[in-house]
Amino acid sequence: MKKIINLDINGQSQEVAVGPHHTLLQVLRDELGLLGTKKGCDTGGCGCCTVLVDGKAMYSCMIFAMAAQGKKITTVEGLTENATLDPVQQAFIETGAVQCGYCTCGMIMTAKAYLSSNSSHVPSDLEARQAIAGNLCRCTGYQKIVDAIRLAAGRRIVASSEKG
Amino acid sequence: MPSAIGKEFLQPDSGQEVVELLVKYGDRALVVGGGTFLHGLVARGVLREMDVLIDLQNAGLSYVKQERDALAIGATTTFAELAAAERVQNKPELGSVLDALRYPPAQIRNMATVGGCVATAMPLFDLPVAFMALDSSVRAVGPKGAREIGLHKFYLDYFEHVLERTELLTEILVPRQPSRSASAFLKLETNANDLALLNVGVRVTLDEKGTCRDARVVVGGGIGKVPVRAVSCEDVLKGQRPTLALLKESGNVVSFDIHPVSDFRTSAKYRSTVAKVFVRRTLLRAFGRLGVHLDGQS
Amino acid sequence: MSETSIIGTSVLRPDAYDKVTGGKGFPVNVRLPGMLHAKLLRSPYPHARILRIDTSKAERLSGVRAVLVPSEVPKKKFHPVFFSPGMAASMIPDMLILSDTVRFAGEPVAAVAATSPEIAEEALDLIHVDYEQLPFVLDPEDTMKAGAPQIHPHAPNNIAMAPSFAFGDLEKGFEEADYIFENTYQTQRVHTCYMEPRVCVVDSDTFGNLTVWSSTQSLFGLREKLASALDIAVSKVRVVRPPYIGGGFGGKLDIGFIEPISALLSMKTHRPVRIEHTRYEDFITTARNPFKVVLKTGVKKDGTFVARSAKSILDTGAHATHGAVVLMVHGMYGFLLPYRCPNSKWEGFTVYTNNMIGGGFRGYGVPQAAFAVESQIDEICEKLQLDPIEFRLKNSHSEGQPHPFDPSFKLDTYRFADCLQQGAAQIGWSNGRSKGKGTGTKKRGIGLACQPLWVSGCIGFPDIYEHSGAVIKLNTDGTADLSMATIDMGSGQTTTLTQIAAAELGVPAEAVRMTYADTETVPFDAPSHASRVTYSAGNAAKVAAGAAKKRLLEVAGPMLKTTPDNLETGGGRVYVKGAPDRSLPIADVVKQAESPYVRMVPDGMQKTSLQEKGTVMGIASLAPAANPSPATAEFVEVEVDTETGEVKVLRVVYAHDIGRVINPAGAEGQVEGGFQQGMGYALMENLVFDQENGACLAADFLSYKMPTAVEMPPEIKSIFIESNEPTGPFGAKSLSEPCAIVPAPAIANAIYDAIGVRIRELPITPEKILAALGKLSE
């Protein structure tokens, strides 16, 4: 039986009819038209579906939509503010971290969550790799994605030191 | 593969209410913690007749409390929450748990629950082995009341444990460890997002003279239907001063206790061989946490 | 002036902004009003005849709009491969859209279209199929033996094809050899793992015209093969170019079952029909075929090849699909051609089994060959105490010599030696290989593997399309719209093509946009495969841009009061040669061409020139002039844990004679991505099946192990040697496939250097390493 629920997506309350077994990924893509979150495997193995739930990276293919009520969900569509790219998005473009792009949004969300909770230093090569261990990519070999994460981290530190 | 066509999604407010729902719905009900293992099964069409989903996130089971003789970890505490909990920091005796929690990728750490992990009864999982090395037990509630079961008695087979269908696992209890104890955990995996080919959890305790007073060695992964306490390995250590040779000897006798399986991931022979190495390395890591650094390879 | 500021610059990808903000252009996002969803019912048995299908219950389920069964599909067999004509003699048409006989576990037997994917899924359970199970065979050698089940009526002993080639006198060659090496190599089945699943939407009208959106590597190939499968005219099928797709790597070079099934359901329901593979379905629908290769090689003691023979067995599974061509490419570019040898023989067998079907995958049969050839070379050098670099150079081709495949071409640019020497210097090869240096139980080693000969497209190969086209037109704001059928599957095709066009036109890179295209509006392009896009499609883009530029200069001549041959373009302007201050913005010239012939001015009417009027545009459709060969050498350092057998890759140096780098970041990205695929192939990937029933055991990413960022080495160094190929656009030849061919043998050779064991079977798992070290205990 479908129920009408409210989900907080990118700061907006969205009303949607969902069945008990529907995943957040299905609801984002099929009901809410938010196509940035991707389905790569539907079994929590690839990371293409990564969204932030209360700021934490999670696989939306493994979250029941009904369980997502009351949480703040952030998708890639919520990163850009007034047409200004999030620094992580910008870094991905600049380092050549985007090839086919299918894993990209999931990677960006994972990177965003990681950098938000590790904001005081630039991650080492290994730390950046471990941060994205739950996100698969077949095109890039991950090298430039790691570069992008470290670039974004470095810029954030410079920006905050300039402010402070 | 067909997916479950669910009929109900319920979010009870307490463990007791969960039990009532389990009694009411019987075989149709499925309890959901983080859902990280569940969805794989759903996608493979394994759980089709279970059309009542009982989500535990509002049941008040997310906490890490210090009881008098044990650390009580609520069943819906996520991996990330447990790893960050103040009560587990800087405690060498809880090293096995923190080691185990570092392996999964961020998304799994944020979603997977401690209770879900233990209750799935998947011998390839890590936390149960880490907990078993610390003589942990499970607290469950059911229609007949609450009970505690030691983890070493909890598992029966793949995906089978001793709880009734109407019982809910509510807590993992990690008893206070003897003083001068440290634990550690290592996992053998093919890539960074993998189930264990083999894993080992150990706890060692030294006396004032630096002799190993007591030890636990638990082996999991593809070594059988349930994790195994490798008593032979423990016996080698007891009463001895830890040396590299002793640790190697302890590792070597693990073959008496485990009966690895061959599967599409690797063979029983490989698991047997590497189990010896991993027992040694995990012991080395644990002793290192007590300031006992032995020469040679880690 | 303009060319060098664009060619060789890491121009940002024009589609990157879209992709980082959500990525609208993926075919998986196509949604049409009234669209239905279809699901496929798949056979649980590896070999069976369908006696009866009862769909009555499924048809009655609320929400189901149509069902499709084998009796309803065209009976003419087809081959699904995009790059060959339907009737090509070298291809094997052995497929039907749905068949009464299923030949692999997972082969579709029926389909349902419904108003939601869930209802379609539920309906599948209501279809009842009576199967008669037949004996099946999964082993590629058993399948050729007498008494094995016959899988296709046209292939006795289940041999789909068995080509062989011989040169010189093999027997005499072996007699002259000082040493003879004979080894057997075995590679495994792996999955392409593109991250966007195979997906299509097909819409139809009442005349039976179809419009197709698909995650595909070829517009025209899909059009042709879909028309062929449906037995309708090609002009009834329109395939729309997606802005990009989420990866292909060769795994989307054929019609899956989904496009024809979707088309038939659309025609039945008069609605658009969508089919999206689950990841499980993708795993069992395309793969790199496993090979067994037996190599026998005779050398002189100075390392000269005197006799080489090879026998290769390719398990093509239930249908030939790519098996015919993969075999030939393997034999030619994997074995016979890369090195010189006066006496050679190769025999290949493409055999049917009841395993899953295969597809294309980067390298196309040659990774399997290179694993064998490059491992054996290392073994020969070790035995004879020869330097592996000198050995290869001794036996390789040289610049200026005739091309070994087609002597009417020459190896105009061929810098294999530079690749070896520069790569060796970068990794520190002359310090001596590691020979197991390391601390304690961890041993290090360095290995080398090469792909001395490769292709830039397919000109010269029988039965393979190779021509490209482009249309480009300039806008009055100084931008240009480039329209091509070329598919961008992530390797940066759009970026490269727009860069080339921009450089030729003399406008900034961002000024050229790749725009809408479908099979009705643009000239033919062959698929995005065979490392061909930069060289072939790039050439077409350059020629089209050149034609547009010629027209531009004809219009600009009178405006700048000179003749067109006295003009040049650069930085978005047209200028007089030698007098750069006499210039005009290109936008102004285009405005002149597009503005009215007669203008109103204060004094009345003013005429311009009729000859200048008309859209400034260029069109090209042509075949490339040649098939130049890049060359590749890769050096890899590994560390082996001799207690567990685990292998860690520490360093990679990749050297490639590329002709000219169009986009450095893009080129590095190909090397790095290729290494992930090659390393996965070498160490962990394995699509395994239950030998009792043919069921796939590894059809999800937890069970199928692919390298994550953590397993990759901290650095992959790319060295690009720019030999300036005269026939390539701005000197470019190809890059992508060798990146995925050389890692596995380089890793295998590095493991030998580290621990002195040769493993001749992929993947090289920790278990195999311990077994080879004699360390596996009970």
Describe the structure.
Chain A is an alpha+beta fold and 164 residues long. Chain A folds into two domains: 3-76, Beta-grasp domain (Ubiquitin-like (UB roll)), CATH 3.10.20.30; 87-159, Orthogonal Bundle (DNA polymerase, domain 1), CATH 1.10.150.120. Chain A contains five helices and five strands; from the N terminus they run E-E-H-E-E-E-H-H-H-H. A five-stranded mixed sheet of chain A has the order 2-1-5-3-4, sandwiched between helices. Chain B has 298 residues and is an alpha+beta fold. In chain B, 29% of the residues lie in helices and 24% in strands. Chain B is built from ten helices and 14 strands. In chain B, helix 9 (244-252) packs antiparallel against helix 10 (268-289). The model of chain B has no long low-confidence stretch (mean pLDDT 94). Chain C is an alpha+beta fold. Chain C contains 19 helices and 29 strands. In chain C, a hairpin with a 5-residue loop joins strand 10 (199-204) and strand 11 (210-214). Chain C is globular, with a radius of gyration of 28 Å. Chains A and C meet through helix 2, helix 3, helix 4 and helix 5 of A and helix 2 and helix 16 of C.
Write a concise keyword list for the protein shown above:
heterotrimer; A: 164 residues; alpha+beta; Ubiquitin-like (UB roll); DNA polymerase, domain 1; 2 domains; 5-stranded mixed sheet; B: 298 residues; 4-stranded antiparallel sheet; 10 helices; 24% strand
Radius of gyration of chain B: 19 Å
- Give the helix level of chain B as a range of percent: 25-40%
Largest interface: A-C, 52 and 55 residues
Radius of gyration of chain C: 28 Å
- What percent strand of chain C? 15-25%
Average pLDDT of chain C, rounded to a whole number, is: 96
The first-to-last residue Cα distance of chain B is: 44 Å
What is the CATH top level name of the domain at 31-134 and 195-247 and 252-283 in chain C? Answer: Alpha Beta
How are the strands of the biggest sheet of chain C laid out side by side?
A: 3-5-1-13-10-11-12
Structural class of chain C: alpha+beta
Number of helices of chain C: 19
What's the main sheet of chain C like?
A: 7 strands, mixed
- Biggest sheet record of chain B: 5 strands, antiparallel
Assembly type of the chains comes to heterotrimer
Class from helix and strand fractions of chain B = alpha+beta
* Unreliable stretches covering 5 or more consecutive residues of chain C: none
